[in-house]
Amino acid sequence: MAHQENQLGNIRKEYVVLINKILAILILNCFFLSSFGGELQFYIVSDSKLKNYKYVNENKFPKLGYVKKTPNLKICKVEKIRIQKSLQNDKDYYSIFILLSQKNSKQLFELTKKAFGKRILICINNIPLYAPYISYPINTKAFEMSLPFCKENIIKLISEFKTILENNSDLSSSDI
Predict the structure, then answer these.
(1) In 3D, which of 13, 11, 19, 12 has the Cα closest to residue 176?
(2) Is 4 helix (H, G, I), strand (E, B) or coil?
(3) Which of 22, 38, 41, 158 is the most exposed place for a label (fewest CB within 10 A)?
(4) Using CA of residue 130, residue 136, residue 137, residue 139, what is the dihedral sign?
(5) Between the CA of residue 118 and those of 43, 64, 70, 122, 131, what are the distances in Å?
(6) Residue 138 and residue 102: Cα distance in Å, rounded?
(7) Distance (Å, whole) CA 150 – CA 93
(8) pLDDT digits (tens, 9 = 90+) for 8-43
(9) C-beta of residue 42 within 8 angstroms of C-beta of residue 120
(10) Cα–Cα distances in Å, from 25 out to 22, 51, 92, 137?
C-alpha cells in the first residue's frame, strides 16, 4: 500500500512538472502575441441604482451591486506583474501581484479612500477579477489578488495582463 502511494506521488510530481512546462511554453507564447492597449479598471460598487450605473450580476460576482458605466479609475500601464500558483483546500489559486507607478498608486489611494467600507470591482480589459471590501485605503505601489482560477482562465488572463505592462519582460510566473 505504501509503495503504491509513493508511486502515485511520483506520478503526480511528474504530471505537475509536465503541466508546468506546457504552461511555461504557453506563457512565453503570450509574450509574442500582438499587443493592444489594455487597462486595469476599478469601479466603486454601490447598493443603490444611480444614473449612469449598471448592475453587476456575473457568475463570479452574483448580485454584486451597481457600478458606473465607466470606471472610477483606469490604469493603462503597470510596472510589473507576477503570477504565482498555490493550493488552498485542494483548489488551485493564483496570486497576482501588481506593481503600480507612483502616480497610479496615488490615484488608487485616493479611490480607496473614497471607497472606504465599500467594495471595489477590479477588472482587466472588462474581465471582472476581484471585488474586495475596502477596509482601509490602499497606500502602496504593490497589491495582490488571490483568485480561484483554472489554468485555462489564468492563461487567458496572462494575455490580458500583457496589454497593460510597460515592458513585457516584467510579467513573471512561477509554479503555474
Answers:
(1) 19
(2) helix
(3) 22
(4) negative
(5) 11, 11, 18, 13, 10
(6) 13
(7) 8
(8) 566 656 655 445 444 444 443 333 333 345 788 999
(9) yes
(10) 5, 46, 19, 38
How far is Cα of residue 37 from the mean position of the Cα atoms in its chain?
17
- Mean pLDDT over 144-150 rounds to 75
End-to-end CA separation in angstroms for the chain: 31
Helix (H) or strand (E) holding 147: strand 142-147
Phi, psi torsion values for 146, nearest 5 degrees? -110, 115
Question: What does the radius of gyration of the chain's CA atoms come to, in whole angstroms?
Answer: 18
Q: What is the pLDDT of residues 114-140, one digit of tens each?
A: 999 999 999 888 888 889 999 999 899
CA distance 142 to 115: 18
Q: Check if the beta carbon of residue 176 is closer than 8 Å to that of residue 85.
A: yes
Q: What does residue 143 show for φ and ψ, rounded to 5 degrees?
A: -145, 165
Q: Read out DSSP for 62-93?
A: TT-EEEESS-SEEE--BSEEEEEEEEETTEEE
**Whole-model pTM above 0.85?**
no
Nine-digit cell at 151?
489554468
